[in-house]
Amino acid sequence: MSLACPTWAVAWNEFTQRVKGKCSFCFVSDPGMVLKAFFPTCCAAADSGLLVGRWVPEQSSAVVLAVVHFPFIPIQVKEFLAQVQQTSQVGVAVLGTWCHRQQEPEDNLGHFLEGLGAIFSHEPWLQLCREKGSTFWSCKATRWPGSTSPRAPSEDQVMIIFYDQRKVLLSQLHPPAVLPNQQAGDAADGAMGLAAVFHTVARSEVLFRSDRFDEGPVRLSHWQSDGVEASILVELAKWASGPICLLLASLLSLVSAASTCRVFRLWPLPFIWSKLSTCEQLRYRLEQLTLIFSPQKSENPSQQMRKANMCVSVLLDVALGLTLLSWLHGKGRIEQLADALVPVADRVAEGLQHLLHWLMGAPAGLKMNRALDQVLGHFFLYHIHLWISYIHLMSPFIERIVWHVGLSACLGLTVSLSILSDIIALLTFHIYCFYVYGARLYCLKICGLSSLWRLFRGKKWNVLRQRVDSCSYDLDQLFIGTLLFTMLVFLLPTTALYYLVFTLLRLLVIAVQGLIHLLVDLINSLPLYALGLRLCRPYRLAAGVKFRVLEHKAGRPLRLLMQINPLSYGRVVHTYRLTRYGCHPTHTWGSLCRKLFFGELIYPWRQREDKQD
User: Fold this and answer.
1) What is the pLDDT, as a whole number, of residue 613?
2) What is the per-residue pLDDT for 580?
3) For residue range 61-113, what is the model confidence (pLDDT) as tens digits?
4) Quick check: 15 and 6 in contact, CB under 8 A?
5) Is a pLDDT exceeding 90 seen at residue 442?
6) What letter does residue 464 receive in the DSSP assignment?
7) Which segments of 449-533 are extended strands (E)?
8) What CA dihedral angle connects 4, 6, 12 and 13, to 10 degrees?
9) 345: exposed, middle or buried (C-beta count within 10 Å: 0-12, 13-18, 19+)?
């Protein structure tokens, strides 16, 4: 039987309500006061001793962290707990006694444990006991009255909740989202309840640094009692990471200082660098390396997770780049790619020439304006001729260019993809010119037709007030306006056809570049380290908890097992996704259609807040 909830706040609230007697599965004789004792599963087989932990009065909860074994000196135990409290800033105290009867019940041990409550004063005083070889557990919480009160000590109902101390220590609890049927106050109360348990265990890590091999005055049982987890390789890496990080951080600071030199700020270098994807990716890679090799420690787990995700992303990017580099340099693929590049450019140019000859005729049986059609066709054909001459002029250097592009893969696959995007932009520059010419001519005619249409209605555009006002025109103005409107209307189909064809070609190039940039952003922003934790160690990313009933019998304390619910993969990506570097905003369908209809230019590199032409 288990209680599973989507968020840990809801799980805690439902669990607390059932504990107080609102549900029938929990046996409670007095629903007024129920004490929740969180007990680590690693201490279930420990020898008898003292229960050390933290008392949370707001939630009536006792978080047991360790068991202090006999023999011990009370003053040494108090001094040890004071040191732990000063280091961890957690109110660690002796909460009660733990009795694990290895043989037949002994009355002397029970009386001795009860007498420890006078030395380590704590209210309530927990007394947990377990019989050897059986599942019988007994527990009670005693509250001592004041010295002037004649009443006998009162006992509270205790419920034992077992938890895996190692998983709770290593896990990072994420705040829950408030469900539609859950009030914000209830979610906050539940969040405070379980957050206190997780934070207590996480901040008490200093308590778990000693094991049974240490020759200290106090012997403890906790999740590392049999030996502290350590690795020689990890310790050596930590020891060597400091000087290496300082050296690399110094080198990166020199590179950053060199990139901000005044020489690189001369016009038009800043304009060109802001438009090249390669420069943007190199700038983002420099920021990544600066953050990774920063000697400053992370202030919180979120920054640590961000640095780990960025480090894994860079390593994967470089590994993919080296794989691409080895593939390109094998079997002469660079020479084959360079030899195939010029014929591909020639075939593209020939295809554009055939398309222009088709437009200069009667495309799809449409009747075009002969004079304008011939002028535009020969104008674009001359540009294609210039472009072919430029490609053949550059053909002796193409192999060397491709070789350097392939060598840049050692910086990462994203750098190579950014260079490929820039190469595509350069190779299709003539298509971009055709698109700009057609868009400007089409936009000019659309603006002219809209202005002349207002003239027929006796309106005009007021530039100062930015509005349409009424205006009276004389006969000559109306006559000239009618002639211009008629010419623009009959010339519009020819211009619109050229604009439509080259806009489609331009959108095709933008789509190819967009796919490349999506792949680059995916490699840069995907939280690979967090996804690896979710796959291999899901308890490290906790979204909530669930409770499984271990024992529920009349006359015995209720025993539950607290288990961690991991985050979903979608929420892991949403929570830990890295910030995108790209300045390639995606237009909405409405704005894109509006720009295409009115002939406005589409700049894939422009920011949303930039002024558009």
Assistant:
1) 34
2) 66
3) 889 999 888 788 888 888 888 888 888 888 888 888 888 765 445 555 555 66
4) no
5) yes
6) T
7) 459-462, 467-470
8) -110
9) buried
How buried is residue 402: exposed, middle or buried, by Cβ count under 10 Å (0-12/13-18/19+)? buried
| Residues 368 and 493 sit within 8 Å (Cβ to Cβ) | yes
Residue 229's pLDDT is what? 61
Phi and psi torsions of 96, nearest 5°: 170, -155
Which tokens belong to 347?
């075939």
CA 383 to chain centre: 47
Confidence of residue 146 (pLDDT cuts 50, 70, 90): low
What residue has token string 């992303």?
A: 313
Backbone angles phi, psi at 403, to 5 degrees: -65, -45
DSSP β-ladder status, 34-40 and 92-101:
unpaired
Q: Classify residue 40 as left (phi > 0), alpha (psi -120 to 50) or beta.
A: beta
Q: In the prediction, which pLDDT does 180 show?
A: 44
In which element (H, E) is residue 109 found? helix 107-115
62: Cα within 13 Å, side-chain hemisphere: 30
DSSP 71: S
> Percentage of the chain with pLDDT > 90?
11
DSSP 409: G
Q: Can you tell me the mean pLDDT for 189-199? A: 72
